[in-house]
Input
Amino acid sequence: MPESLEQLDLLLMHEVRARKIRRDGIHFQGLRYLSLTLAAYVGENATIRFDPRDMGEIRVFYKD
Output
């Protein structure tokens, strides 16, 4: 069992894709996801996890 609701939420986000972080955010399925935190990682590759039923949010992982 996951130790927290956040860990459970992450487990339920079963779709995983690789994306490059651009100056204007992460582009995925015709949408653009922005965060000030991403600015430090422009040009880097990251892994995104998401729930295909709710594209309002993605989780971004850099080097695990």
About this structure: The mean pLDDT is 88. The two ends are 21 Å apart (CA to CA). The chain has one domain: 5-61. The first strand starts at residue 15 and ends at 20.
